[in-house]
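Need residues for this backbone.
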């Protein structure tokens, strides 16, 4: 007699009760703020909410034609691409090296995972203290070597600083998934390639890396979203978008215009545009990049 693998709930209401907490969190913390942003993006409001005027797409036209917003878009592209590439590349390198360690493997992995527990703002402050031009230890070493390091005045150096801090914060997360992906690869495949005479580099690029494609694709999506949204605390703590808006990303400009300058309509329009950009990037990644991903 064949047994059925279908799960049957004793109460028809139970599945909905189990889903209710997650649905409530999604509605309260995603759909409700998103709907409010869309609603406010077509309005012009004074900072105290005493008067409201419907302007349609006027806020969007003003935002798109603003040179400062276009500058923030360029800064975001450079920042997100650099952060994603650096964080994923270093994490993959560390994961491959840690996978080769025989003694103390778990200790090394634990030490490499710890930085992920640091809050973004704290991570930014750590890097700011290390590279502060007046009292930073690493900044002092850079000046001793003859390099004029001052991210408070040099926009390119400020970008290097926030990218380094953001990538350092995300390396541990990527490392964790790459290690899990490496452990899932059958060792027999690598041993067979070694017996056939394939060198270490060739084994990695022809066997290991293709089998890590699902993990790499997942991390690409996660790191893109991280660079666009979750790095706000780092930028706020390290540079505040300066100097001269050299590190003002899109999410930080939303904060500046909405909470600092109190331009509520423009800030809401920028948040809607940012949401559309991230959704479009994710869709493009799933549409074109996932084609090359092999799920073994």
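Answer:
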């Amino acid at each position: 007699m064949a047994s059925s693998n279908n799960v049957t709930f004793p109460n028809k209401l139970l599945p909905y009760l189990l889903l209710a907490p997650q649905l409530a969190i999604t509605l309260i913390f995603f759909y409700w703020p998103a709907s409010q942003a869309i609603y406010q993006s077509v309005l012009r409001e004074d900072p105290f909410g005493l008067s409201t005027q419907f302007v349609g797409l006027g806020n969007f036209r003003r935002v798109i034609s603003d040179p400062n917003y276009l500058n923030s878009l360029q800064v975001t592209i450079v920042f997100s691409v650099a952060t994603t590439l650096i964080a994923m590349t270093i994490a993959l390198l560390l994961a491959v090296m840690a996978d080769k360690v025989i003694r103390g493997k778990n200790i090394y992995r634990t030490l490499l995972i710890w930085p992920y527990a640091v809050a973004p703002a704290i991570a930014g402050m750590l890097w700011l203290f290390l590279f502060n031009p007046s009292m930073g230890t690493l900044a002092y070493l850079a000046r001793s070597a003859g390099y004029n390091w001052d991210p408070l005045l040099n926009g390119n150096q400020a970008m290097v600083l926030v990218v380094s801090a953001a990538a350092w914060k995300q390396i541990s997360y990527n490392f964790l998934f790459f290690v899990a992906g490496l452990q899932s690869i059958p060792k027999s495949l690598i041993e067979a390639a070694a017996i056939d005479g394939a060198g270490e580099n060739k084994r990695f690029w022809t066997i290991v890396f293709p089998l890590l494609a699902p993990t790499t694709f997942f991390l690409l999506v996660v790191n893109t979203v991280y660079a666009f949204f979750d790095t706000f605390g780092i930028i706020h703590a390290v540079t505040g978008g300066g100097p001269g808006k050299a590190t003002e990303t899109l999410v930080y400009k939303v904060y500046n215009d909405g909470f600092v300058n109190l331009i509520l309509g423009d800030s809401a329009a920028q948040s809607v545009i940012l949401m559309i950009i991230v959704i479009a990037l994710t869709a493009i990644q799933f549409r074109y990049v996932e084609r090359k991903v092999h799920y073994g």
